[in-house]
Every structure is written in C-alpha cells, then in structure tokens.
Amino acid sequence: EAGVVQSPRYKIIEKKQPVAFWCNPISGHNTLYWYLQNLGQGPELLIRYENEEAVDDSQLPKDRFSAERLKGVDSTLKIQPAELGDSAVYLCATKGGIETQYFGPGTRLLVL
Amino acid sequence: QKEVEQNSGPLSVPEGAIASLNCTYSDRGSQSFFWYRQYSGKSPELIMSIYSNGDKEDGRFTAQLNKASQYVSLLIRDSQPSDSATYLCAVNPDLYSGGGADGLTFGKGTHLIIQP
What we know:
The complex is a heterodimer. Chain A is mainly β.
C-alpha cells in the first residue's frame, strides 16, 4: 500500500513569492491534515479536512495561507506571499476510520 | 490552551540499557496518547498508542499512562543505536482516534542518543 505522497520535497523561494505544496493521501483515507513543523518543535496543526470539507482551519493564517481539497482526495496548501518566518517543514497526514495518522515525507521550505 | 510537555534532551543512554522518555499534558480531557519517532530529516512515524491507564507492551517498547497524573511515558528496552531519534508525544481528546476535532497536539520531542 502506497503511503502519503507529498511534493515537492524541497522548495527554495524568495520572500514575497507564492508557493504551493501538494499532498496525495493513502487510498480511502477521508481525513487529511496539514501540519507545520519548525526546527526543534513538534508538528502544529494548520487545517483538517473531512473529505472535501475543511472542518478545522482555526490555526491557518488566512491572510496568506490557503488550502483546498477538491473531490476529497488530493490537497494543496498555498502561501502567498511567503515570508522569511514561513521557512519550515510542511507535513501532510491522513487517517482512515479510527486508524491513527500517517505522515507524508514533508516539504521543506526555505524562504530567502 | 492544550499543552504537551517533554524534556528536549538530549537524553544519552548506553547501548543495551533502558531508555525512559516522559511526557505530561495539560488537557485532562485527553483520551488518546501516541508516541512518534522522528529521525533527522524524516517525517514522524507512529510507534505506540495507548488509551487506558497502565502499561502497553509492543516488542522492546512499553508505553505507560497515568491519567490522574496526566503523565505518559515510553520505555525502550535493550536500546540500539538505531533507536537514536527524536521521540514525539502526542495527545488527542477523542478516544481511539488518531486525530479528532483538533488533530493531534504534539510536544516538542525528546532527542534520544544511544551510545554504542
């Protein structure tokens, strides 16, 4: 069974530029999460989807961050414009039923 | 605000010894507890889950939960160099759920070093 797929794995951009991350969940997993992980910290939830519906986006900085999950499968997370402080690892995790979350490899973002 | 506290370490343990990792949480309503292992540059990987008070053993790993004290621990027996990683404690308010209404709340992690 394939795991959670994320792309790109690494991204370097200049500040004020836009950037987008993509996540493909494990087949059949209806719940999808985006987490932010800073160096030396644990992951912090940004947004949770149940199928195509964003059911918890209270931690998503909506002035510059946006996310979508069209058709309840793949999801994209976008930052526009990016700031220096956005440099971090962006993790996607998915869950099916009562199973626990499985994390993708993450996208490492560096904003210069 | 829900908080999960861990000693960041590093915790250095000789090979073959028992490594003991500790975690406390602030939300008394937490029902599900998890330990994730994260190697440097990699994503978190689930190694243990525990939902009721007491001990749960899986191979060389034992998770211990004490809800009255709001305390979770992870013991690694016969520690191996390959156990060297950061161990993240995570909690959730929903029972038997790896991510309920709020997703998982993670601690900052404890960096474990197993010395050969």
